[in-house]
Specification:
This protein is an alpha/beta fold. The protein is built from 17 helices and seven strands. Bound molecules: guanosine-5'-triphosphate and magnesium ion.
């Protein structure tokens, strides 16, 4: 008992953790999950929590099936009592009837909505050990699911998700009924471990066709997507096979928490449904790179041409300092929509729409770009060093002229040609030319540097706008998507996480 309790404790703790993860995923996903899905997930979470609070040491087994299949008769046969009403008028059972093996079933039966008069406790002192294998069992007899009375179906739909084990009772006439297969069984794919089918009224079949019929039923279950679901044969009337049914139930009751197992598959279903509203992954970081956005926007405002023009002014070319053009709305719109296309590719629609809602609009981006670019300095000041060299070249030119003039004057005055003066003049001319050449070099370098600075400043201004207007809001959504995805994975059992 202690060991079982400890195992149940571990199961319960793990389930509670998974339910927490599920609810947190729902919170993170918020309005990006449709309201109906969120409501279903919350309902499952609440049910599982309530079931866990009631303790998983009891196992709720519900007998479900079409009217007249023999649920109530089977209930009585298993319990060895005549408690459930078996009738000739159809349908007979309209309220859930319960039999509890062992004590303390009241809170669980309250939660299951079983009326005070519809409960009976098995295993009195008189039964001694006869009923011991079923201790912990809470057996429910449900109304029919294929009823002419819609209330019956409502009761079934309410209780089926609460049962830890579903026993589908079918009879030889109606075991292939569509209402059973499409209405219930096919929706229980994944819950094979929590269900079993009993082919009742075996006594109405000739012995030689019984196996054939059971095989046909098994084939239908496989078609339903439920391979491996146990099929038992019984007759509530003759008692044939009832021992096998009781043994099956005893196995389930004794097994490592059926309640936790069933609750686990409910959490899995909810996690799968929620996971279906998330993408498989967020876009790779490279797809959210800002550089292509900056390239496109700086091209659109003509930054390369303006940088070149500023450089040209510094180089000493003609023309005044240029200005950046107005930010064109259509170009901003294009950049924005191509950003959204790339960023939201592969995300479910609701998440993509959220990215679209959160990034800056075209006008907002355009205003921010205009303001940011207005702060970029475009002033073009020619190089001082180059100016000094030009002045030096002028001085050297004048010196060359003076020396040349002096040499010519002396020669005309009849003196000898002064090679020293001529050499000096030539030297001054050469030096002036070198100074001019150096000045041109200096200006070219200063022009290139200035152009590069304007480009860098302009790109930084654009990048700041792109980051705050596009990249950051997108990354926020992606971070939430990733968190929701991880939480959903944490809400799943290891087996279904892959
Ligand atoms: N021959 C035969 N008749 C059975 C068997 N089990 C039940 N019946 C009869 O089938 C009829 C319906 O049985 P119930 O136990 O009331 O069936 P149910 O599934 O509870 O029906 P609802 O309460 O209307 O959903 C009754 O007349 C039973 O006596 C069986 O194993 N063999
Ligand atoms: Mg009944």
């Amino acid at each position: 008992m202690t060991t079982t309790g400890a195992v149940h404790g571990a199961d319960t703790a793990d389930l509670q953790r998974r339910v927490e993860a599920l609810l947190e995923a729902l919170d993170v996903a918020g309005s990006r999950v449709p309201g109906a899905v969120a409501a279903r997930v919350r309902r499952t979470a609440a049910q599982v929590r309530e079931r866990l609070e009631l303790g998983v040491d009891q196992t709720v087994v519900a007998l479900a099936g079409g009217t007249g299949s023999g649920k109530s008769s089977l209930f009585n046969a298993i319990a060895g009592l005549e408690f459930a009403e078996v009738g000739v008028k159809r349908p007979t059972t309209s309220r859930v009837t319960a039999c509890v093996w062992g004590a303390d079933g009241e809170p669980l039966l309250d939660w299951l909505g079983v009326g005070p008069d519809d409960r009976i406790q098995r295993e009195s002192e008189l039964d001694a050990d006869d009923q011991a294998p079923l201790r912990g069992l809470v057996l429910l007899d449900l109304p029919d699911h294929d009823s002419v009375s819609p209330e019956h179906r409502q009761v079934v739909d309410r209780v089926v998700p609460l049962a830890d084990l579903l026993v589908w009772v079918v009879d030889p006439q109606k075991y292939a009924d569509d209402a059973l297969h499409t209405g219930y069984l096919q929706r229980l794919v994944g819950h094979q471990a929590s269900m079993v089918v009993v082919l009742n009224q075996l006594d109405t079949l000739a012995p030689e066709v019984r196996g054939e019929l059971a095989d046909d039923l098994r084939r239908l279950l496989v078609e339903d997507g439920l391979p491996g679901v146990g099929v038992l044969r019984a007759s509530a009337r003759t008692g044939e096979g009832i021992d096998t049914v009781r043994a099956e139930l005893a196995g389930v009751v004794g097994q490592r928490s059926s309640a936790a197992l069933r609750a686990g598959t409910e959490v899995d279903d909810a996690a799968r449904e929620l996971g279906g509203r998330l993408g498989a992954a967020e876009p790779a970081p490279a797809r959210l790179a800002v550089t292509p956005v900056v390239d496109a926007l700086t091209d659109a405002v003509g930054l390369p041409a303006v940088s070149d023009a500023v450089g040209a002014v510094v180089r000493g070319g003609s023309g005044g300092v240029p200005e950046l053009g107005a930010v064109p709305a259509d170009a901003v719109g294009l950049v924005r929509s191509s950003w959204l296309d790339t960023a939201t590719d592969g995300l479910p629609r609701a998440w993509g729409l959220d990215v679209t809602r959160r990034v800056a609009g075209v006008d907002e981006l355009r205003d921010a770009l205009t303001a940011a670019l207005a702060r970029v300095t475009l002033a073009a000041r020619p190089s001082r060093g180059a100016a000094a060299l030009v002045v030096l070249a002028g001085v050297l030119g004048v010196l060359a002229l003076a020396l040349g003039g002096l040499a010519t004057g002396l020669r005309l005055g009849g003196g000898a040609l002064s090679w020293a003066l001529v050499g000096g003049a030539v030297g001054a001319v050469v030096a002036a030319l070198v100074a001019l050449w150096s000045a041109a070099g200096l200006r070219a370098r200063a022009g290139r540097r200035r152009a590069a600075t304007v480009t860098a400043d302009g790109r930084a201004a654009v990048e700041a706008v792109a980051v705050s207007g596009l990249v950051e809001p997108t990354q926020e959504v992606m971070a939430e998507h990733r968190r929701a995805r991880e939480l959903v994975a944490a809400a799943r059992t290891a087996a279904t996480r892959a």
